Amino acid sequence: MDPVITFGATAPPIDEQLRSQGYKLDMDPLDRGYLQRDADEVTRLAVRSVLTQSERDKARWRLVRIIRKQAKPL
Predict the structure, then answer these.
(1) Which domain holds residue 65?
(2) CA–CA dist 54, 39 (Å, integer)
(3) Does residue 8 lie in a domain region?
(4) What is the dihedral angle through the alpha carbons of 48, 50, 53, 54, rounded to the nearest 10 degrees?
C-alpha cells in the first residue's frame, strides 16, 4: 500500500508523515530538504493566490509521485 501524504500549512513534515506509516525517503538528505521546501512553496503560492486550485493540485500530485517512487519501507 502506498503511503498517504497530506499537504498544507498545518501538515507535518513529509519525513515525519512517512516515518509514522513505516516508510522513509530513499534520497540524499539535501534532496529530501528540497522536496519539503517544494511542498511548502506550493502551499505558500496557493495561499497567496499565485497558483489556482487546479495548478496547486497538479503540483502536489507531481510531488506525491516523486514521494511514492522514493518511499521505501523501514
Answers:
(1) 14-73
(2) 15
(3) no
(4) -160
Q: In whole angstroms, what is the distance from residue 37 CA to residue 31 CA?
A: 10
The confidence score (pLDDT) of residue 63 equals: 98
How far, in Å, are 6, 8, 51, 67 from residue 11 at the CA level?
A: 6, 5, 19, 15
To the nearest whole percent, how much of the chain has pLDDT over 90?
Answer: 97
- CA-based torsion, 66, 1, 24, 56: positive or negative: positive
User: For residue 50, what is its C-alpha cell?
Assistant: 499565485
Residue 6 within any structural domain of the chain: no
Number of domains in the chain: 1
In whole angstroms, what is the distance from residue 22 CA to residue 47 CA? 31
